[in-house]
Amino acid sequence: MRVVVVGAGLSGLMAARRIATQNHEVVVLDKGRSTGGRCATRRIGNAVVDHGAQFFTARSDEFATIAGEWMRAGVAMEWCRGFSDNDGHPRMCGAHGMTSITKYLAQGLDVRCSTMVFSIERASDGWGVRLDDGRELLTDVVVVTCPIPQTMSLLANTDLSIPDGIRTIDYDKTIAALVVVNGDTNVPQPGGVQNGDDTFSFIADNKQKGISPERALTFHCNPAFSEMHWWNDEATTHDLVMQLAAPWLGAATVTEHQPKRWRMATPKTTWRERCWSTQGIILAGDAFAGPRVEGAVLSGLAAADVVLAS
Ligand SMILES: Cc1cc2nc3c(=O)[nH]c(=O)nc-3n(C[C@H](O)[C@H](O)[C@H](O)COP(=O)(O)OP(=O)(O)OC[C@H]3O[C@@H](n4cnc5c(N)ncnc54)[C@H](O)[C@@H]3O)c2cc1C
């Protein structure tokens, strides 16, 4: 069977790996320059900064087993067991940033980055996946793992009837700042602060976390702040975020700072099942099995099971 997976984030890669074990012809397409999607790691000089997902937990035994495999492969590690206190539950992260995990998952797969899908339309025999350079890939099955608004636009020229509960899924926005510093900051051990004030939903010290040789902080503004300032001038908003970050930076000297914006950070609602499928089109991603790393992984695996059962 020919299978095209749209998206080389966790969901798409997990789906592709499972499908590929059964000797199907699987191609993964992603518009990004590298794998990972919302698991994103940026290098700023010598600093390594996670700017999407910061860490993950394992709520299900199924995902705990997978996380254990990643740890044994050396691509994930335990960061801590709580941020303000130790609740005993591991918070894990990529060993060299979150993209360590997706780079590992992509090994051995036909993953084509910098490849933007423009539309998905019916072909005489299956589906045609049209790329933005005009080329078309013909396939029997398409697994689409983009955030839902992007998925809907790819499928706009089909006659598929997608339930309202999926079509209308909207996402919280995240405005972020990535800040490289010299010296100690006011971010306490273990280097993560959840909802520490009225602006930031998460602050990470990537050095304390263990992924960066240089001290570099990630500031994620909470959904309310991000929504309120989303349409404002980006430079003005970034200046404001830097002012609001100052108490956390303490006496450290800022050597570099960059803005980052996630228009579709996390789904506000999720579909009741781990994926949705019809006629060779399977929709998956964190909008299905939960708005987090674990949900994306479990949704990708569920999508693979649907493909393999067809
Ligand atoms: C700021 C932020 C903080 C977060 N923090 C956490 C956290 O601490 N813990 C946690 O568990 N989760 C967190 N999350 C959520 C987590 O990152 C996501 O749930 C998970 O990464 C989603 O994976 P996915 O594969 O479903 O989607 P994605 O990672 O979004 O993958 C979809 C892929 O599709 C690609 N794509 C989209 N359109 C096209 C197209 N037209 N053509 C080709 N490719 C396309 C994209 O480039 C992307 O790579 C956070 C997310 C954000 C943004």
Report what the structure shows.
Strand 3 and strand 4 (47-50) form a beta hairpin. The model has no long low-confidence stretch (mean pLDDT 97). The chain starts with a strand and ends with a helix. The chain is globular. The chain folds into two domains: 2-40 and 60-169 and 271-309, 3-Layer(bba) Sandwich (FAD/NAD(P)-binding domain); 171-267, Polyamine Oxidase, Chain A, domain 2, CATH 3.90.660. Strands 7-2-1-11-18-17 form a six-stranded mixed beta sheet, with helices on one face. A five-stranded antiparallel beta sheet has the order 13-14-15-12-16. Strands 8-9-10 form a three-stranded antiparallel beta sheet, with no helix packed on it. The chain is 29% helix and 32% strand. It has helices spanning 10-20, 61-72, 99-106, 148-154, 164-167, 206-209, 223-229, 234-249, 286-289, 293-309, and strands at residues 2-6, 25-29, 41-44, 47-50, 76-80, 91-94, 110-112, 117-123, 126-131, 136-139, 141-144, 171-182, 192-194, 200-205, 216-221, 253-267, 276-278, 281-283. The protein is built from ten helices and 18 strands. The protein is an alpha+beta fold and 310 residues long. Flavin-adenine dinucleotide is lined by residues 6-12, 29-32, 37-39, 52-56, 116-117, 145-147, 150, 154, 174, 220, 262, 265-266, 285-286, 291-293, 295-296.
